């Protein structure tokens, strides 16, 4: 009996002509991939690939097998899609969201998907670094992550961009400046997002690179609270532009060096369920429109 993971592994190697790239696309080790291909070849009684130091090529039997493997994969995909449509236990997706999801249009996206497809979705909110762990452990189907660390072999689709700004009170001496160098902030008092969070660490590293240790007088998980502290004149902050709520009491100033953030839809590589593929297709169609 052929295992589906053997079929997936064969198709990946046939696509990439490289065991390292194929293993990365499947989210498994190269040794595991090699073992799968070996077991498949043993069960068939034929070699499927010719391996050299430069490339991996299909044998004649491998080329023949590829034709049928594609058909088997298509049948499995059709079955998965029908299963997702017909049965409620395959009709739900789990999403991980960053706290600033609404500012980047992510809540609107998921709401529209649920409304247009009648699929059930569970959504939970956490920090990007925690979402990476949850996604890697399979506790969610997709995660919207800001500045993915790159330590996991996720597939990533760019969703939004943002950039960091300096937030100061309107009465602050820098409030009328169009741009400020981070090195000019050495004597300021800072309010940052929670300690040890990715935004906190990024801001601290930015200040250290500019030649000073930031004087952090407070942290808060609520951006509105940070902005209110700044508006009261007790400190300044470095925040992503799109998450700063409108407040006439503060000014937003560009900083140098320019710091960008990427918000990506991340998911585990390898075989997707019919419902997961349906969401990705929906996302592509909505962005195209």
3D structure, described in words:
This is Transcription regulator. It comes from Bifidobacterium goeldii. GO terms for molecular function: DNA binding; DNA-binding transcription factor activity. The chain starts with a helix and ends with a helix. Helix 1 packs across helix 3 and helix 1 crosses helix 4. The radius of gyration is 24 Å and the shape is elongated. With 289 residues, the protein is an alpha/beta fold. The protein folds into three domains: 83 residues, Arc Repressor Mutant, subunit A (Orthogonal Bundle), CATH 1.10.10; 97 residues, 3-Layer(aba) Sandwich (D-Maltodextrin-Binding Protein, domain 2); 99 residues, D-Maltodextrin-Binding Protein, domain 2 (3-Layer(aba) Sandwich), CATH 3.40.190. Strands 3, 4, 5, 6, 7, 10, 11 and 12 form an eight-stranded mixed beta sheet that branches. The protein has nine helices and twelve strands.
């Amino acid at each position: 009996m052929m295992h589906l993971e053997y079929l997936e592994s064969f198709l990946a190697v046939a696509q990439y002509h490289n065991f390292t790239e194929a293993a990365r696309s499947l989210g498994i080790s190269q040794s595991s991939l090699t073992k799968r291909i070996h077991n498949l070849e043993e069960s068939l009684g034929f070699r499927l690939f010719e391996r050299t130091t430069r490339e991996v090529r299909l044998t004649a039997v491998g080329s023949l097998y590829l034709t049928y493997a594609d058909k088997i994969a298509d049948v499995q995909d059709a079955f998965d899609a029908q299963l997702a449509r017909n049965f409620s236990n395959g009709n739900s997706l789990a999403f991980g969201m960053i706290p600033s999801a609404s500012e980047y249009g992510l809540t609107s996206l998921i709401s529209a998907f649920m409304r247009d497809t009648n699929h059930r979705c569970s959504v939970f909110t956490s920090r990007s670094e925690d979402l990476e762990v949850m996604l890697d452990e399979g506790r969610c189907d997709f995660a919207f992550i800001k500045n993915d660390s790159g330590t996991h072999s996720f597939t990533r689709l760019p969703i939004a961009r943002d950039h960091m700004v300096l937030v100061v009170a309107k009465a602050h001496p820098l409030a009328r400046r169009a741009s400020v160098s981070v090195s000019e902030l050495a004597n300021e008092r800072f309010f940052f997002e929670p300690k040890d969070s990715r935004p906190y660490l990024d801001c601290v590293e930015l200040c250290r690179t500019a030649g000073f240790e930031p004087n952090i007088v407070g942290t808060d998980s609520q951006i509105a609270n940070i902005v209110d502290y700044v508006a009261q004149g007790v400190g300044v902050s470095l925040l992503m532009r799109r998450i700063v709520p409108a407040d006439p009491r503060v000014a937003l100033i560009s900083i140098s060096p320019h710091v960008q953030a990427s918000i990506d839809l991340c998911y585990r590589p390898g075989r997707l369920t019919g419902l997961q593929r349906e969401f990705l297709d929906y996302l592509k169609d909505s962005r195209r429109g």
